[in-house]
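Side project, low priority. Logging it here so it doesn't get lost.
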Amino acid sequence: MLDRKRRLWREVKDQLKSNIGNGYQEMLATARDEEDQATVSLMAETNLTLLGPKRQELEAIEEALLRLENGSYGHCEVCGQSIEPRRLEIMPETPLCRNCMSHRE
């Protein structure tokens, strides 16, 4: 989990640096009209939207690490039962057992 967290943080950081490096601020400052400004803003928003899933995965990992620290890791947040070991192997950040997850969906 920690390796995944580090990798995701690096990807997010690199993407944000890339956005800055792509000169969005400069393009916005030199945009000739409102249409150009809207285009540049849309480009920046699109890139941030693409980071959304990575941000969500990072949050899930952070929450799993907190559960690990407080001793609740491996127990379903809804029913309190143990989460199946195989499920934790596949998705170590999952807070729900298979049964509670299927009811949520």
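Brief comment: The chain has a mean pLDDT of 78.
Revisit when time allows.
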